[in-house]
Design goal:
By secondary structure, this protein is α+β, with helices and mostly antiparallel strands. The protein contains 6 helices and 12 strands.
Length: 239
Amino acid sequence: MRTQAIRRAATIDYRCEAYDWAFARDAAVRIDAHWADLRAEKPGLFDGRVLVAHDLAIDQADGGTLRARGFETNYKPFLCWRDFGFPGAPVVNLFAMAALRSADGAFILGEMSAGTASAGKLYFPAGTPEPADADAAGIVDLQANALRELAEETGFGAADVTVEDGWTIVFDDARVACMKALRSPLSIEALMQRFAVFRAAEADPELDALVPVWSPDDLDATRMPGFMLTYLHDAFAAG
């Protein structure tokens, strides 16, 4: 059974620290075998460093603050942990998403390319936070992460969008999607044209296409994960 909830937060306080992740240690043999299978299918997968959260709560003072603590790990155990069904609470996959909407009202999702770990899925631009998203004190800037992923996947930079205040937090089992609402002054047609030029210049694009979502009728439960459906239903209900 899926556990889902949606909350608002004015700010996010996400800090990294040392942590002993028992899953990565205890399941090492199984992780290596699964990673070998994944790499055989998708050789482009890279075992870089990512950030994973292990403790979070929403403090309702001052409009609400999502407080989280995280740690560095390699992408290999992280991806295997996801594929194995997220064993070993209290670790969660906490990440930011660029919830971009065009001037004429369409939400803009990306279709993940064949070489990615989520090929064919439809998401807002996003990526697992990395150590580079944290400053010297270990404080993680999820807004900067969302804007960076937007630029890397679509070519739309921070100067091309208006960033709205606050966050919408979607809890979906062990996934915690932090949605940052963004607005573009361009129509969906103009955005699609700009993306086509950007993608044509990319040697290994992360997205195969941009997919506009105008209403609940455009939602696709076979390709959109639960946190995307939860957010979009809520956003369309709000108008």
